[in-house]
Design brief:
The chain has a domain of about 80 residues. It contains 3 helices and 5 strands. The chain is globular and about 35 Å long. Helix 2 runs antiparallel to helix 3. The N terminus is likely disordered. By secondary structure, the protein is α+β, with helices and mostly antiparallel strands. Keywords: Signal.
Length: about 120
């Protein structure tokens, strides 16, 4: 049990990185239980249904969480999704209830996640 608590604490403050410049900048699992299946479905739908609008607009309420996105001088919303989706999947699998991924293209930045 103590090992699981230590692992959860480490996951809450973990900084993950994949190829490119996408990084989890915030991850907490302290806001209560999440429906991981629903969050995975929300993430899948977020790419299809919600990125067609301006990247500067926030997203949706889904899976019991508020999804958000935004950017500063970032060229492509789907690039942002593609860069961050895998990291968000990992965070969902760890039980995160509040997570943000940032991606950088030079000095341009985008972010997405849920809380």
């Amino acid at each position: 049990m103590k090992f699981a608590a230590v692992l959860a604490a480490l996951a809450a403050f973990a900084v993950s990185q994949v190829s490119g410049n996408a990084t989890i900048v915030r991850e907490y699992d302290a806001l209560g239980a999440t429906d991981q299946g629903a969050l995975h479905s929300c993430l899948d739908n977020y790419r299809i249904d919600n990125w067609a609008s301006s990247l500067g607009q926030d997203g949706m309420d889904c899976g019991g969480r508020g999804w958000f996105k935004g950017s500063h001088n970032y060229k492509s919303p789907t690039d942002c999704y593609d860069a961050c989706a895998g990291l968000l999947v990992q965070a969902i699998n760890r039980g995160a209830s509040d997570v943000e991924c940032d991606d950088y293209e030079g000095s341009a930045r985008c972010w997405m996640g849920f809380h």
